[in-house]
Amino acid sequence: MIDVHCHLTFEAFDSDREEIIRDLKKRLKAVIVSSTDVEDAQGVLKLYAEHPSFLYATLGLHPVYAPDMDDQRLESYLRFIRDRRSKIVGIGEVGLDYHWVKEEARRERMREVFSRFLELACELDLPIVLHLREAIDSGLRMVIDSGVKKVLFHCFTGKKKQAQEITSYGYYISLAPNILKSKDLKRAARTLSLERVLTETDSPYLDPEGGRNTPQNVSLVIQRIAEIQGLSWEEVDHMTTQNAQVLFNLGVG
Ligand SMILES: [Zn+2]
After folding, report:
1. Is 24 helix (H, G, I), strand (E, B) or coil?
2. How far is the centre of ligand 1, averaged over its atoms, from the C-alpha of 34 (Å)?
3. If we measure between CA atoms, which residue out of 92, 3, 75, 86 comes closest to residue 41?
4. What is the CA(63)–ligand 1 centre distance, in A?
5. What's the CATH number for 2-248?
6. Looking at the whole model, is its pTM more than 0.90?
7. Extents of the domains making up the chain
8. CA of 202 to the centre of ligand 1 (A)
9. By C-alpha distance, which of 122, 167, 168, 128 is closest to 146?
10. Distance from the CA of 136 to the center of ligand 1, in angstroms?
């Protein structure tokens, strides 16, 4: 089992972070922690340094923060990431969020910032982890135009047709615990080629019971995919773990 996207740096884990990580090490092969802004990037790198070969880092900027990022701060953050190329396994999360950002000028800035991260992923030859909320189609067009090859659509919430289009380009989709409840996602997941599927929790968000989510719930996502596709838990675990290792080039057996 690998959780390819979560936020173990968030305040929700302040009281028991080490305990949780200790427990996760018994159950999961690896956990990828994604940063959402400049400060969080420091926390993610620190956590990675404390748990190498188990926790892995991706650095990015959540799209809701992108409209307020001026050029100077953006360039210095891109430089910061470039200088830490050897410590990270991907760029993200980055992308577009049309749910929380409505104003056209702010959306335009969000797209500008996103395209700079797409360029960076190409330059560093790293996978990019996408947050595309109510913006899958425009995000997908930008990804195709950028020429970036290793792409993960994190916490996929789109329709079956969009999932098929994404995978037809060789991009990956990660499914999160919202697949436990959504009928649309069930439909999309039924015909999805397992070779393109990864699993995640987006912890501390998306807890199936409405509380605090933790990466060990990735087992529930695997279980749900297995049910939907008529496979065993082990088959889905094997395939999705392998996919994560390939996409992020993780050195875990
Ligand atoms: Zn996230």
Report:
1. helix
2. 7
3. 92
4. 11
5. 3.20.20.140
6. yes
7. 2-248
8. 5
9. 122
10. 16
